[in-house]
Amino acid sequence: xxxxxxxxxxxxxxxxxxxxxxxxxxxxxxxxxxxxxxxxxxxxxxxxxxxxxxxxxxxxxxxxxxxxxxxxxxxxxxxxxxxxxxxxxxxxxxxxxxxxxxxxxxxxxxxxxxxxxxxxxxxxxxxxxxxxxxxxxxxxxxxxxxxxxxxxxxxxxxxxxxxxxxxxxxx
Amino acid sequence: xxxxxxxxxxxxxxxxxxxxxxxxxxxxxxxxxxxxxxxxxxxxxxxxxxxxxxxxxxxxxxxxxxxxxxxxxxxxxxxxxxxxxxxxxxxxxxxxxxxxxxxxxxxxxxxxxxxxxxxxxxxxxxxxxxxxxxxxxxxxxxxxxxxxxxxxxxxxxxxxxxxxxxxxxxxxxxxxxxxxxxxxxxxxxxxxxxxxxxxxxxxxxxxxxxxxxxxxxxxxxxxxxxxxxxxxxxxxxxxxxxxxxxxxxxxxxxxxxxxxxxxxxxxxxxxxxxxxxxxxxxxxxxxxxxxxxxxxxxxxxxx
Lengths: 171, 303
Fold this sequence. Notes:
The complex is a heterodimer.
Chain A: H1 3-23, H2 38-69, H3 76-90, H4 101-125, H5 137-157, H6 167-170
Helix pairs in contact in A: 1-2, 2-3, 2-5, 3-4, 4-5
Chain B: H1 2-11, H2 13-33, H3 39-110, E1 116-128, E2 137-139, E3 152-157, E4 160-170, E5 175-179, E6 186-191, E7 197-201, E8 210-216, E9 228-231, E10 243-251, E11 258-265, E12 274-283
Antiparallel strand pairs in B: 1-2, 1-12, 2-5, 3-4, 3-12, 4-5, 6-7, 6-9, 7-8, 8-11, 9-10, 10-11
């Protein structure tokens, strides 16, 4: 099986599990109703490791799945996650991911990017959501939460061979 | 020409894929915003509901197993107490049955018709929204159990029943509820003490309160902080008299003819576990799943 296809396949499965966790068990560790966006962290991690193609296709597939589960309009999350996957994929091979600082920075940047993109898409399509209406408390809670979780979560994802970058690809 | 196209695609594979995926997303957004695409979401909801039920059940099982060890000792003591109470209840039940029989006889004699009461469907919260952008609540009942789109949803917390929201998406075995604090949730309401009417709308979860608009400025002196806001029943979506919240702030903007009331919802949405969906009116006494509505203070009669 083509390695990119295999990675994309397992990434979508990992993202689906994260989405299910977010909608169920992670509600118990929510801070003011805000849960960490594990699916986005997986997407950022995989995109950085495997490039824009894997990033955008995985992002689209998982986003579409999320749209089917949510009250959000079909295409909303798929658009956000496609763009995030692509943009972080462009950094592939150019960013050294240390165990601590870089995951925090990447998670913070990705969450803010998600906030900006969702704001733009919501404004353009007249979508009313109760989350990122403006950059108020909840967004910054999620930024902080994702930043705290990211080093541990990236360390966990590092254990999976399927997400690892080969030497040739990394060059 | 095909060669030229293939060459272009080979050179710009990543960009072309991105453009195609973004285009598909945008088309979906356009279509679903016009509410043309409904079926795929329902299919997705039912499939997701299956896994969400599994996840919730799995983690609850672990939690319950760990908790049950400690609860076993307490359960033994409770059992002894319960047996003693059972004796008392047996006696009480006999008295209640006798009273019921007498009540039915008296009603027959007075020719009272059976009161209309709404049918209620009890449901459990199995999931919330997958991220923090939207704010739906997924429940374990769907069209197979008689859930219909637009059904009002209430919950009990402590001794008080309060409005949670309404059903917006129905799958075969699960449904999604739009909570009161969502900006898309609008309820026709009135201040219980003064009977002044207005519209309650969500402001997002950030604010912690919902807003009541279109209350006439003339009512400003009569309305007080802490006054109860209930559904008015106008519009036909929500039944009359369901508790919504208490007034936290009253402002009278100079540029508007109506008041803006900030209302603290009765329900703590982070603690929701079980909900009741209110169906159409049916004849007969309220069912066991239909606890009596907490009596609201009597309306003040204005001269």
